[in-house]
Each structure stands twice: as C-alpha cells, then as structure tokens.
TrEMBL record:
InterPro entries from the UniProt entry: Aliph_Amidase/BUP, C-N_Hydrolase, C-N_Hydrolase_sf
Alphabetic keyword roster: Hydrolase
Name used for this protein in its record: Carbon-nitrogen hydrolase family protein
The keyword Hydrolase belongs to this UniProt entry's keyword annotation: yes
CN hydrolase domain location: 10-246
GO molecular function, one term: hydrolase activity
PROSITE patterns, alphabetized: CN_HYDROLASE
Gene3D superfamilies in the record: Carbon-nitrogen hydrolase (3.60.110.10)
Pfam families (UniProt xref): CN_hydrolase
Length: 262
C-alpha cells in the first residue's frame, strides 16, 4: 500500500463473536466489549454477526414477544454505543414492525442516529428462522468515511440477482453479517463470486460458538477479485480488523485480536 493510500485508510472491525441463544443481556455485553475494543483501535465501522443480539436459535428458548417489547430500549442502547465509540455500528438483531418480524442489520451512525436497515431476503421459512418475514428489497447505505455499502445477511449472498440489483445502485463495498457454518449447506463460493461479478470487495462478519449449529469453524472473510484475500475462524471470540482505502476501494492489513467471552 502506498503512503498516499495508507494516509486515507479507515479501519473496519468485524466482531467475530459467539452469541448465546436467548441470552440477550450477555450478548449485548459482548457486543459492547467488542465495539469498545474496536474503537480503541480507531475503527470507523463496527459490524456484528447475524442475530448477534439474540443468538441464532433463540426462539425455542425465549419466544419472540421480547423483540417488539424491548426494541425501543435496544435501539436506544445501540445508538448510545455508536455515539460513545464515535463509529458506525451495524447491529445484527431481530426487528419488529407492527405486523411482522425480520432478521435485520440495523445501522447506527457515529452521532447515534438510526440511518438504515437491511432485512434478510433469503430468510429460511423453517427451523430456527421460521419466525422471520423475508425482506423485499436490496439495500445500499452511505456510511460515513467508508462509502456506499451494499448490505446482505448470510444466505442473501446465494442470489446472483440480489447481488446484481444491489450493485446496480452504485456501491464501493459489499458487507454481510452471517451465521453460516461450514458443512452440507455452508458457504461455497458465494462471497468470491460476488466480489468477482461486482468488481468490489466483500467483507463478511461471521460468528463462532455453538448455537443451533456448531459455528467454531465458521469464517469471517474478505473476498477480493474472486478469491478469499483474508479469513478468520477460531472457537474464541475475536475482533478482525481490516484497513479500507475508500478512494482506491482496497482492503489490506488484516489482523485479529481475541475478545473476552461474556
């Protein structure tokens, strides 16, 4: 990386956490720990995994009534956290409207405002995700200091059409939160393909730990030009940091730190 590019880089933090199903307070504590650790490394964008607030298999343990009941408090907490760390926070959480529940990424700006959301489109209608309603549109959000970001949740990357429709809105970077374990239905080239067809880097914030599945070998990755450029998988929760040069649309200098378990 040249000196000019290095001077204009922004650090992006992927919180490779181990959310516990149904343990909302513990998961919030883990997110806050990771976000503050990321801020100490000058991260400008902090991303959490899919359903980081609730864990993946929460429904059978605590139901879904808490989602709407606690949403105002949750969003107030997340906004305050984003403001405290001075960074954009992408929160993976169940989301409630007056008539539906969604598997969402909620975006909070550095001043604490809720500035956008992406609702998982390729949501499973059986098993651990059967509580959620599929989203109905691609999402691109302008993120302070980062650029125009296309948002995906996990299996949304299965769909070349969704990738194309997102890219058509004009993007600098593709970003996915995930709870995507390797195995029979695990990732199989979707991230690499998206980086190749769009000509833009793909960052994936995956998770670890045991939930409805064993996620210990699940990878958080950066895909560039059709190949995996960086990857991290480890049973211990971690903080993956990567430098992003917005003007050059280039990722570099991947490094990982451990994060204490909640």
């Amino acid at each position: 990386m040249t000196d000019a590019i290095a001077a204009s880089t922004r650090t992006i933090a992927l919180l490779h956490l181990a959310p516990r199903p149904g343990e909302i307070a513990a998961n919030r504590h883990s997110i806050e720990q990771g976000a503050r650790q990321a801020a100490a490394r000058d991260a400008r964008l902090v991303v959490t995994p899919e359903l980081a607030v609730s864990g993946y298999g929460f429904r059978d343990l605590i139901g879904t009534g808490w989602i709407a009941e606690g949403q105002a408090d949750l969003f107030a907490w997340a906004g305050a956290l984003a403001r405290d760390i001075g960074a954009t926070l992408v929160l993976g959480t169940p989301e409630a409207t007056s008539d539906a529940l969604f598997n969402s990424m909620i975006v909070f700006a550095p001043d604490g405002r809720l500035t956008g959301r992406h609702r998982k489109i390729n949501a499973l209608r059986v098993g651990s995700e059967s509580w959620s309603t599929p989203g109905d549109r691609p999402t691109v959000i302008a993120v302070d200091g980062i650029g125009r970001v296309g948002f995906f949740v996990c299996a949304d990357m299965y769909s070349p059409r969704l990738v194309d429709e997102t890219a058509a809105q004009g993007i600098d970077l593709l970003l996915s939160s995930a709870a995507w374990a390797p195995g029979l239905h695990g990732p199989s080239g979707e991230w690499e393909r998206a980086s190749s067809t769009t000509g833009r880097p793909v960052l994936v914030c995956n998770r670890t730990g045991c939930d409805a599945l064993d996620f210990d070998a699940a990878c958080s990755v950066a895909a560039v030009s059709g190949a995996i450029a960086f990857s991290h998988a480890f049973p211990q929760p971690g903080l993956a940091l990567v430098d992003w040069a917005p003007d050059a649309r280039r990722l570099a200098n991947w490094r990982v730190e451990t994060v204490p378990r909640a």
